[in-house]
Write a structure and sequence with these properties.
Layout: E1 8-13, E2 18-23, H1 26-32, H2 35-46, E3 60-63, E4 77-83, E5 90-96, H3 98-105, E6 110-114, E7 121-126, E8 129-134, H4 143-154, E9 159-162, H5 165-168, E10 176-178, E11 182-184, H6 189-195, E12 198-204, H7 214-230, H8 234-240, H9 245-251, H10 273-279, E13 280-284, E14 294-301, E15 304-310, H11 312-318, H12 327-340, H13 344-359, H14 372-384, H15 388-394, H16 397-404, E16 414-415, E17 418-419, H17 429-437, H18 450-457, H19 464-484, H20 489-494, H21 500-509, H22 515-539, H23 553-557, H24 572-586, H25 596-601, H26 605-612
Parallel strand pairs: 1-6, 7-12
Antiparallel strand pairs: 1-2, 3-4, 3-6, 4-5, 7-8, 9-12, 10-11, 13-14, 14-15, 16-17
Helix pairs in contact: 1-2, 2-19, 2-22, 7-21, 11-13, 12-14, 14-15, 17-19, 17-24, 19-22, 19-24
Length: about 625
C-alpha cells in the first residue's frame, strides 16, 4: 500500500476535453518525491524539444508532495511548473493556498494540463467529480473579481487558483493567483495558463490521506507547532514577517535601489516593517501554518483606501528599486500587480529598467525615479499591452534590452531572462552565485545565502567553503522543501530543525530518509532541470554555455557609490572560480552541463542519451 502519496494525478486535455486519472508507481515517487521533482520529470519526458511555451503543446503542471496537506507545520504549498515563456527554460514557483490541501484531499497529488480550450474554461474538482466548465463570464475579470465570482458559484469550501488579465494577455511574467495576494510561478506560469484559455481551477476534497503512522505523525507535527511558537524569533516574525529584513538590508548595503545601482535608499524609513506594523489590518496564512507571513495593510492613496498583502520582495522591488519611499504608494502598486496577476518582483524590475532607460534617454517616454503615478500607469500598460513600451516590457526586460540596444543590456537586471529578486549583490558574491545557479533564473527561493554570507562566511570572500554552503542550502530549500512539498520558512526563519523532517517524512510515507537521500535527490533534480535548459536552448539554435550562469554586468563594472560598502563590486575572476567549484561539486562540466558519469550515477540514463548522444 502507498502511504503519504495518493499515487494519482489528473490528466486534463483541454483540446480534446478529456479527463483521465493516472496512477503513479512507488519507485517513481521515491525517486522524484513530488512537487518540483515530479514536475521536472514530466516536462522532460513529455515535451518535444523546442516546444513553444505558449503553444497548446506546452504542459502546465500543478504538483504537491507527500507532506502537502498533512498535520505538520506549514504544509499548504503546491508547485506550478511549465516550460517558461519568459526564459524558454524550466520554470516553476510554489504557492501557499487552500487549493493545495483540497486537491490532495480530493485524492490527487497533482494535475497535468495539456492542449488548449476553444473558449475560456475553468476546471472543477470535487473529489472524484472533475469537469471542464465554461468561463467566458470570467474572462476579462481581474484576479480578485474572479475569485469572488467563483466563490459565489461553488462555495467557500473550495480552494481556487486563477489568472488575471496579465495571464490572459500573455504577459511573459504573469503569475497564478489565489486568495487575493498569494502568487506563484514567476517565470510566466500565468501566461501558460492563459495560453490554454484556462481561467481558473477550483478544488474541494474531504478524503483522508493515508499515512504510514498517523499517531506518530500527529504527535510530531504538534511538537513542531509548539517548537515554532517557542522560538526566540517567533514574536518579531509574527509582527513583521519577511518585512523584518528590509531594515537589515539597508544596514547591510544590499537593498536594491534605482534598478540595483545602489544598495542603500535615502527614504527607506518610509517602507520598513515598522511602518507595516502601523498599517496592518490583519494577517492571513497558508493552511496548516502557525507562523503567518501574510501581513495585510490598509492604506490610503488619492485613488482611495484599500487593503493589500505585503512582503519584503514586493516592497523592495516596488519601493526602493524604483525610488518610492512611501509604503502607501508601494502598497497601491502591489495591489495593482496582484489584481492583474503580474509578478511583483518582475514588474518592479521592469519599471526600474524603464526609469533608467528614460534617464539615459534611450526611450522617448519620461518616467522619473519615484514617479508613483507613472509606475501605476506602466503596470496597466504592461498588463494590457496598450502602449509600445508596455508591449515591449510585457515580453520581459531581457527582450526589451536587446531590442533597444545602446548598452541597455548592461543594466537589464536578470539571469537567464528572469529578473533578480530583491537583494543587491555588488558586495555579496555568494548570493550572486545563488542567483546565477538558481534552476529557474535569478530567484532567492532556492538559496537565501545573503544573511549567512554577510554574518558568517565573509561577504567579500571567494572561496570553496562558500560554494559548499550554497549547495547545502540549495539542496534543502530547492531540493527537499520544493519536492516534499512544504514551506521552508519554519526552518529558515524561526529555526525549526531540518532533521525533524526526516521523521515527518517517515511517518507520512514509511520511507526512511537522511541528508544523503536529500543530497542525491537534489543533485538528480538539479541535473534534470539543467539538462532541460540545455536541451531546449539547443533545440532553439542556442548552444549552452556558462555565460547563462553569470549575473548582470552592472555588478562587475559599476561599483556602489553610497553606503558602508561604497566602492564595492563583484570580481569577475573570483566569481568564475566559484562557478568552477560549483560545477565540480555538482558533477557538471566547465559549461555547467551535467556529465555522462553524473547523469548515470543519478539514474538519469534517459537524459544522457539526449544530452551526450
Amino acid at each position: 500500500m502507498l502511504y503519504g502519496w495518493n499515487g494519482k494525478i489528473l490528466r486534463i486535455n483541454l483540446t480534446k476535453k478529456e479527463i483521465k486519472v493516472q496512477q503513479l508507481n512507488k519507485d517513481l515517487l521515491v525517486k522524484f518525491v513530488g512537487g518540483r521533482g515530479l514536475a521536472a520529470k514530466i516536462l522532460w519526458d513529455e515535451l518535444k524539444p523546442g516546444t513553444d511555451p505558449l503553444s497548446s503543446e506546452n504542459k502546465l503542471v500543478f504538483m504537491a508532495g507527500p507532506l502537502t496537506a498533512l498535520p505538520l507545520p506549514s504544509s499548504g504549498k503546491i508547485v506550478i511548473a511549465a516550460k517558461s515563456p519568459l526564459t524558454h527554460g524550466y520554470g516553476d514557483g510554489n504557492i501557499g493556498t487552500k487549493f493545495s490541501v483540497n486537491l490532495r484531499k480530493a485524492g490527487y497529488d497533482g494535475i497535468v494540463i495539456e492542449g488548449k480550450a476553444e473558449k475560456p474554461v475553468y476546471i472543477f474538482i470535487e473529489n472524484d467529480n472533475v469537469e471542464i466548465r465554461n468561463a467566458e463570464h470570467l474572462w476579462g475579470l481581474d484576479s480578485f473579481e474572479t475569485e469572488d465570482k467563483l466563490i459565489s458559484e461553488v462555495g467557500k469550501a473550495f480552494g481556487i487558483v486563477e489568472i488575471g488579465p496579465a495571464g490572459e494577455n500573455l504577459v511573459k511574467y504573469a503569475v497564478v493567483m489565489s486568495e487575493k495576494g498569494r502568487a506563484g510561478g514567476r517565470p510566466g506560469m500565468g501566461a501558460v495558463m492563459g495560453s490554454k484559455n484556462l481561467k481558473a481551477i477550483v478544488a474541494h476534497g474531504d478524503k483522508e490521506i493515508a499515512v504510514f503512522d498517523k499517531d506518530a505523525l500527529v504527535k510530531k507535527g504538534a511538537e513542531g507547532y509548539s517548537k515554532i511558537k517557542q522560538s526566540d524569533a517567533y514574536d518579531f516574525w509574527m509582527r513583521q514577517g519577511t518585512m523584518g529584513v528590509l531594515r537589515w538590508c539597508q544596514e547591510a548595503n544590499v537593498l536594491p535601489t534605482y534598478n540595483f545601482r545602489e544598495g542603500v535608499f535615502d527614504e527607506f524609513e518610509g517602507i520598513t516593517g515598522d511602518v507595516l506594523e502601523k498599517l496592518k489590518e490583519f494577517t492571513k496564512g497558508c493552511p496548516n501554518c502557525n507562523m503567518i507571513c501574510g501581513h495585510n495593510v490598509k492604506f490610503k492613496v488619492e485613488e482611495g483606501e484599500f487593503i493589500t498583502e505585503l512582503d519584503y520582495e514586493n516592497v523592495a522591488m516596488l519601493g526602493s528599486n524604483i525610488g518610492i519611499g512611501d509604503l502607501h504608494k508601494v502598497s497601491y502598486l502591489n495591489m495593482l500587480a496582484d489584481k492583474y496577476g503580474v509578478d511583483t518582483i518582475s514588474v518592479g524590475s521592469a519599471i526600474g529598467f524603464a526609469m533608467e532607460l528614460s534617464e539615459k534617454k534611450l526611450i522617448d517616454e519620461r518616467i522619473e525615479w519615484g514617479d508613483y503615478k507613472k509606475a501605476a500607469e506602466l503596470i496597466e500598460d504592461i498588463t494590457y499591452r496598450r502602449t509600445e513600451l508596455g508591449k515591449m516590457l510585457a515580453e520581459g526586460i531581457e527582450f526589451t534590452a536587446k531590442k533597444i540596444g545602446n548598452g541597455a543590456e548592461s543594466f537589464a537586471m536578470h539571469v537567464k531572462g528572469l529578473p533578480i529578486s530583491a537583494y543587491d549583490c555588488h558586495s555579496a558574491p555568494g548570493m550572486a552565485l545563488a542567483y546565477g545557479t538558481s534552476p529557474i533564473g535569478a530567484h532567492h527561493k532556492d538559496a537565501w545565502l545573503i544573511m549567512l554570507e554577510i554574518k558568517q562566511l565573509g561577504r567579500h570572500a571567494y572561496n570553496k567553503g562558500k560554494v559548499e554552503k550554497l549547495i547545502w542550502m540549495q539542496n534543502i530549500r530547492g531540493g527537499f522543501f520544493e519536492t516534499a512539498t512544504t514551506c521552508r520558512l519554519p526552518w529558515i526563519e524561526v529555526g525549526y530543525p531540518f532533521e525533524e523532517y526526516y521523521d515527518l517524512f517517515y511517518y507520512a510515507t514509511g520511507v526512511k530518509i537522511s541528508y544523503d537521500f536529500v543530497h542525491t535527490l537534489t543533485n538528480r533534480i538539479y541535473a534534470l532541470i539543467r539538462a532541460f535548459w540545455v536541451r531546449e536552448f539547443r533545440a532553439e539554435g542556442r548552444e549552452w554555455s556558462r555565460k547563462y550562469d553569470m549575473p548582470p554586468e552592472r555588478w562587475f563594472k559599476e561599483p556602489l557609490t553610497k553606503g558602508p560598502e561604497k566602492g564595492a563590486k563583484l570580481d569577475y575572476d573570483g566569481y568564475n572560480k566559484m562557478l568552477d567549484w560549483y560545477y565540480e561539486m555538482r558533477g557538471w562540466d566547465k559549461n555547467g552541463v551535467p556529465t555522462k558519469e553524473t547523469l548515470e550515477k543519478l539514474g538519469l540514463s534517459e537524459v544522457t542519451k539526449v544530452i551526450w548522444g
